[in-house]
What does this fold into?
Amino acid sequence: MADLVFPAPAPVSIPVAGGGAFPVRRVFCVGRNYAAHAREMGSDPDREPPFFFMKPADALVTDGADTPYPPATADLHHEMELVVGLAEGGVDITEAEALAHVWGYGAGLDLTRRDLQGQAKKEGKPWDMGKGFDHSAPIGLMVPAARIGHPAAGRIVLHVNGKQRQISDLANMIWSVPETIAYLSRLVRLAPGDLIFTGTPEGVAAVGRGDLLEGEVEGVGTIRTRIV
Ligand code: MN
It folds into this structure.
């Protein structure tokens, strides 16, 4: 291989509960996967096909680190989500096979510059700058499915400064984790290290500098970050 013309960036990984680290390849996100959230965003949640957007892997914020308030927004929203991490990839994965490709799970935040996303929606433009900005994906420890199984139900909750902002149950997802993996694998070849943020329940709202975000997915884990 030819010499690199400048040093390659460090690989991105997420600490694992109990030791080790999960190496991240790509970050996929599902849009509007809880009916009550789809409604609060002005959409009809009547089981439209799942749709996806992406964040750069280096947008992840790990280890409970602070999250810098991003530029170019006056409306930064929290979206509390279950995150799936794949150990195996492939194309045309069936729903029945899907969970065998999962390494484990984490609790994450799909931070969103809602004003930029709203403007993009209105103009039929891409969401990237509303969703895929620096530090837009804080995430807690990854936990192996070998230890916790594959949660299909359980409380998902987010507190901001100790006050409950979002609460729902994983069972309220429109598209289940196996359905999401199967669908996405018909669009791209999935790979080990891919993450999937599975969508947020209702209750999204703005946060500002100094706010402490503390989320939990029952049976999976927690996410904690302060906006600075
Ligand atoms: Mn989201």
Q: What stands out?
A: Helices lie at 35-40, 95-98, 114-123, 128-131, 145-148, 177-184. The chain has one domain: 13-226.
